## 1
Amino acid sequence: MSAQPHTYAVADPETALKYAIQHVQGDRVQIVEGVIQQVMPSWDHEGIADRIRRQLVPALDRLDCHAGSGNLDLPGTSNWYVPDLAVVPRDIVKGAGALLPDQTLLIVEITSESNADTDRIVKRKRYAEYGAPLYLLVDRQERSWTLHAVPGRLGYTQVTDPMPFGRPVPLPEPFGLELDTSEF
């Protein structure tokens, strides 16, 4: 008995593309402006995400939230992101597949040599467009961080100047804490 290929009827290319990447075995992939990208962070990259996650624990407990790296869908576009870290209320996470950026409280992207401009420009624009309330860009190449807040269709309306590593990140309410960046 030979294996028969599966065919699926799909109404549009966006649905087909997003369905396909969700079923890639063993790989984490995202779609950025229609381009499929394999997500393969380095240990340094993961170390920064872990430092941020640990500092968020008191707020996560208080807010009943989860911090992780799950799928974010941007309906109506050929974008399907896997952020380095997202903070999401636990009641939304239960049973959810992909979430929408406006269901998060904070999204963190940490640049790599291969994707720095994507995080700095493309994702910043899309996260604002799709209502992510806070977007923290940790720029490893520039050794700085930038916090974006108050999203809108044309971008974020409150943006800090890039701050060097070592300066704390003041996360506004509902977090109400500062992230130590001295070990980034």
## 2
Amino acid sequence: MTTSVFRMPLRLLTASVLCALANASHAAVYVQCPGDTNGDAVIDNPDPNHPRAVCQHLTAGDGFIRMGDDAGKLQYTFGFHDVTGVPPDQVMDTGLLAANFPAPTISLKEGDEFYLSLTNVAMAIRPDLADPHSVHFHGFPNASAVFDGMPEGSIAINQGETLTYYYNIVEPGTFIYHCHVEATEHMQMGMLGNLYVHPKQDGTSKTYDGKTYTKFAYNDGDGSTGYDVEYPLQLGSFDPVFHDLHQSIQPLPFANMKDTYAMINGRGYPDTVNPSPLPTPIDPESGQSANNGTQSQKVSSLVTASAGQRVLLRISNLNITNFYTVTVLGLPMKVVGTGAHILRGPTGKNLYYDTSSVTLGGGEAVDVLIDTRGITPGTYFLYTTNLNYLSNNEEDYGGMMTEIVIN
């Protein structure tokens, strides 16, 4: 990492600086969660008036991730971090320099009452910034605009403050979430995450095409969206010049943005097939953790199934610069949902379709089923047909690709 007069190097970001940032706003961390007795967003004593309450607490701040090239380039990011279960007086310390990419996965059930608290812990690397943050539950029909996360019509959270969003989960499907404050900048910097809702039909038994399922993508009524295993795969990419200039406090080249690190769930191949969280990124100057000891890339993209199982891929794209097309060599793909809606006509007729590839623009999501009955066990590749994105910046044989392993 190059030291700049315009930037505080990580080796100078002392514990006293972190403590000063953290101690400024401990008292502002206030979580709303029915049945939570100590403010850590964990339900200790269920409230009979809210039997389906689900609570989660995220922080918004900055951090670093490691890219997939051989050098493991350190990339400055913004992001969210899950502090559910952390006492309120420890949230600021825990959330500093702990940005995850992608954001922590949110998985819900239709009928839940979701209380999502967001605390803005400020930017440790860019203390000159006073950016507010928000959560936008993309594609969800909010009952009130105040919880939409778009600052023009709702609320954004300033540094050192906490807001609890409330969502009455009325629709199943594959959604996505992101910060909507200065959206182009904050989304390019990494404030993006997987979010999906399981249908009420889950837990019932329905037989379709000779096989019985208890898990479904939607309330289909006939078992046609049944599956055995599911995986969220979020497509995205970074412009390293934009990220480096941001860290160096230089003018940001919005008009010239060009993403050259293409990823799935925040990793480029071969990191996509590592089933474990990636190690905490290391600052090459100090040789110490750049992320305050936090693992920032926790979501694997490796897909595994047993022969004969049906796989649900929840594929989304929150990229702000590109459309992406992805394909799976040798495996049949059936699209059963788009934009968090089942593919059905007004009379209830299934409009599912078989395909060899799907194309997604920013903010789009599709539900793809892969039936492995009759498929030869082995390793199959899911990758982008935009071949220039099968690279980690200047290094080929990487980028937007992962493996589907049929055992």
## 3
Amino acid sequence: MEQYIEFIGNHPILSIIWLIIVVMLVSGWFKSKFSAIKQINPQQLTLLVNRENAVIADIRPQKDFNNGRIANSVHLSAEKAKQSDFAELEKHKSNPIILVCATGMTASGIANNLTKSGFESVYILSGGMQSWQNAGLPQVSGK
């Protein structure tokens, strides 16, 4: 214990940085555990679609959506979604909504907007369409 106190006394800036990193990690973990928006993997996506009639909303550009998407997914324009225009999804408000983007990074802001707009269950495909492809799961293409 004395070594810790000595280290903190000799290196106050490093100690503060370490403390900030620990607080950020712990708060991020709590935030993800108690968030209304859940990250799911491709297998969990399949279970939600099959068991709870989940709706898959693909927010990638139209070109990417046409080149390959998860079967029965609907295209949701990212621009409209950022403005909270969810007309395509209004009739599915009580169903689970799963957002799919390219890598799983851009969907969180839109997921927050969905939750604020009254959608009950919002999920994000962790890793996005890339994780779906890496799992070797089927895709459909065309309009």
## 4
Amino acid sequence: MKGKILNIQRCSIHNGPGIRTTVFFKGCPMTCLWCHNPESQSFKNEIMYDNEKCTNCQNCINSCLNNCIELNNDKIITNLDNCILCEKCIDHCVSGARELVGRDINPRDLVHEVMKDQEFFKNSNGGVTLSGGEALNQGEFTIEIARLLKKRGVSVALDTCGFVSKEHLEKISQYIDIFLYDIKIIDSKKHLEFTGVDNKLIFENLKLLSSLSSRIFIRIPLIEGINTSDAEIQGILDLIDGINVEKISLLPYHEIGKHKYNKLNLNFKNKVMKVPNKDLVEKIKKIFEKKYTVEIGG
């Protein structure tokens, strides 16, 4: 059994309590317009190209096995549609402008890698967080990783968008200590428009986890003009009423990952999205604080 991951981030103080090692899985069923990790969306390995690092040495052109790189008006142009991921352009890039995102790994090798950090987990009450993309879109692979980690006494958190198989969610719940559960948009039409999927399954899976007495931390990205209205906030309150939510994390939208879209030759569709100001974030925080423990970030 093998799965596909993006990278392993060590000594993280986010994505759950304590010091954590976060495994980012490749592939996501959603295409959220505000996504700051667009390299996590595709289930395929990809090549990211940073033209600001490029020295125009043209080694990539000469090494490409499928002739999908060319020089046009003194700029290196890559036709990613024709790329066969031979990785020759990466091997011959002297400036580090080209990077492969995505690698295959089996569960035992992955667990062996993250267990190098076990002393950090023990001393901080931390653990491993399985994040994405969406980890449960590689269901059996992710379940096996969680099982192996729990067998070794490691606390495991799962960061999920909720648009996943109910069977996989229920199966993995026995190995997960904390679910970091995303709620993005209440309005179903807007959810479909801005994330690419309907939210019905997400809401059903949240209730499923609650019925299993799972520990749930709700995470809400705040994008002004999309999900910060009074109706949206009240809708979230109505949704989680009666669900055993332990904490809410408000995640204000930012454009830190904007440059990645250019690296992947993707269009960054940010015209309708705004960074919420501090007053708006504080207002929303106070609304949730009437009933829940709330943090900004995390």
